[in-house]
Specification:
Strand content: 5-15%
Number of helices: 17
Order of helices and strands: HHEHHEHEHEHHHHHEHHHEHHEEEEH
Oligomer: single chain
Strand order of the largest sheet: 2-3-4-1-5-6-7
Radius of gyration: 24 Å
Bound molecules: guanosine-5'-triphosphate, magnesium ion
Length: 482
């Protein structure tokens, strides 16, 4: 590996081209960019990471797969390879298994994620700038950038907002939410239990465990039966290796404003476990995997939320906003100055599974996402971070066609629904560009199943057909690949 500290002054003096020695050090030593792939459960994180890797590995053979990625389009991409598994601290992301599953005789999507995994992709390229190229020639090696990505269950993201809340505050906010709408039905047993167990009753492990079990059953139902997203804590839905750790045995309780939790009370026991959970699980998750990211893609399955109805849609919006509070955007703000580590300076919001709608509807998906959460507020708070909104499909699983409906020729998508259905046409109606008005929710305007993945080549040669994956990568990484 070349000694950048030695080269930089010489090159700078000789040419006067260099803006900063740090850029050259990056090119010579190989920079690492931590990319946060953020998204609620089933939003498409694992499929996105798998397709991104496969297309980057394939790019040396088939540069046409990534026409909107500058480094590929300009012919400067030399190749990409996976970092050795031992380079990471976590178990390796199952790229190979995922590709094999998708390339099998009966193609299948990757499994839902149940724990943390990481991977690094080393991209080798010829620098675009004259000093960068000169440095590459002197050192005899191309520039490299390693993109590091961590994959995790989407449910865990909702834990991040807990860092800013005490047990009493969280309990009050949660129970307020659970007493309304669908949650009140799904959580009837748990709410009845809470009504019978005051925070100041004598602590009991048995009562705490009972509350916890009822609460978990409620969260599972809210997610799986009602399509809700704002569900905390995340490990209750997806415990990973923690499984039955006793400090997980807590649940929200009714705690009136201003009430003190007495020693040896049920409330005090729950609060202690909640704090342990925050310290042992959430803080570690945040510090180890989010603090160091400088680029972020936020994946949102906007269509699924629309399909699930008004409450699920509103709930997803709340969940997204809660999560976004947990990240540090731009260089402004007291918090950004106090906390160590880089801030996130580029964020892309992406509506996923854009192949579920015909081409002419895809801009609508992105617009709907733009109008869905309080992104403009984030933008205003952070002048130095760059934001964009787009729609993507990591793996195109449908084809476009048209169909006559009521004497009109309308665009439809054709695909094979997961679960053995026959190939069929699906008319998705018009995707609204704003969250529907309250009275518009009654008409079901969309009809999209999950589709089977297409046949792909497991060898990283041809790549995977996608929509806007290259554009997303250019926005997120383009400046680091120059
Ligand atoms: N048609 C289509 N379906 C997709 C695409 N990406 C994801 N899906 C579907 O969405 C499902 C969920 O995708 P994942 O990538 O596993 O979601 P995730 O965010 O990793 O979910 P968790 O691991 O549960 O947090 C997949 O099993 C597919 O059915 C896409 O680009 N096109
Ligand atoms: Mg996953």
């Amino acid at each position: 590996m070349s000694d950048a500290a030695w080269y930089a002054p010489i090159v700078a003096k000789a040419s006067g081209w260099l803006s900063t020695a740090a850029d050259v050090a990056d090119l010579a030593q190989g920079a690492t960019v931590n990319l946060a792939v953020t998204g609620l459960s089933r939003s498409g994180k694992t499929v996105f990471i798998t397709s991104l890797i496969h297309n980057l590995l394939s790019a040396a053979h088939n540069q046409n797969r990534l026409p909107l990625l500058g480094v590929a389009n300009s012919g400067r991409l030399i190749g990409a390879r996976l970092e050795e598994a031992r380079a990471g601290r976590l178990p390796r992301f199952r790229y190979e298994d995922n590709i094999e599953a998708m390339a099998a005789g009966a193609p299948a999507w990757p499994q839902g994620t149940d724990d943390l995994r990481e991977i690094g992709i080393e991209v080798r390229f010829m620098p675009a700038s004259t000093p960068g190229r000169l440095l590459s020639e002197i050192s005899g090696s191309p520039a490299t950038v390693t993109i590091r990505i961590v994959d995790y269950p989407g449910e865990w993201l909702l834990d991040l907002p807990l860092l800013g809340q005490s047990f009493a505050t969280w309990s009050r906010a949660s129970l307020r939410l659970y007493r309304r709408g669908t949650r009140a039905q799904a959580g009837a047993d748990f709410l009845a239990f809470v009504a019978q167990h005051r925070h100041d009753e004598i602590m009991s492990d048995e009562t705490a465990k009972q509350a916890h079990d009822l609460y978990c059953a409620f969260l599972l139902q809210a997610r799986d039966k009602h399509g809700l997203s704002h569900l905390q804590p995340g490990r209750f839905l997806c415990p990973g290796h923690l499984a039955d750790a006793p400090f997980l045995w807590f649940a929200p309780l009714d705690i009136p404003d201003g009430a003190q939790l007495a020693p040896n009370s049920l409330g005090a026991l729950m609060a202690e476990r909640y704090e342990t959970y925050k310290r042992v699980v959430v803080e570690r998750f945040y510090n180890d995997h989010f603090r160091w990211f400088s680029r972020q893609i936020v994946l949102v399955d906007v269509l699924r939320a629309l399909l699930a109805g008004r409450e699920a849609f509103e709930d997803q919006r709340l969940a997204l906003e809660a999560i976004l509070q947990s990240f540090r955007y731009g260089s402004g703000g007291l918090l950004a100055k106090l906390l160590r580590g880089p801030h996130i300076d580029r964020v892309l919001f992406a509506a996923t599974k854009a192949d579920h709608v015909p081409d002419i509807q895809r801009d609508h998906l992105a617009e709907l996402l733009r109008n869905m959460a309080a992104f403009p507020a984030i933008e205003a708070r952070s002048s130095s971070a760059q934001f964009d909104v787009t729609s993507i499909a990591s793996v195109i699983s449908t084809a476009e066609d048209t169909q006559d409906i009521d004497g009109q020729r309308v665009p439809v998508v054709v695909g094979r629904p997961v679960g053995g259905g026959k190939q069929a046409k699906f008319f998705v109606g018009t995707v609204p560009i704003r969250p529907p008005r309250p009275d518009a929710w009654n008409s079901s305007f969309l009809n999209v199943p999950l589709f089977e993945p297409p046949v792909i080549d497991p060898a990283p040669v041809d790549g995977i057909a996608h929509i806007n994956l290259d554009q997303a990568l250019e926005f997120l990484m383009g400046d680091r690949l120059r």
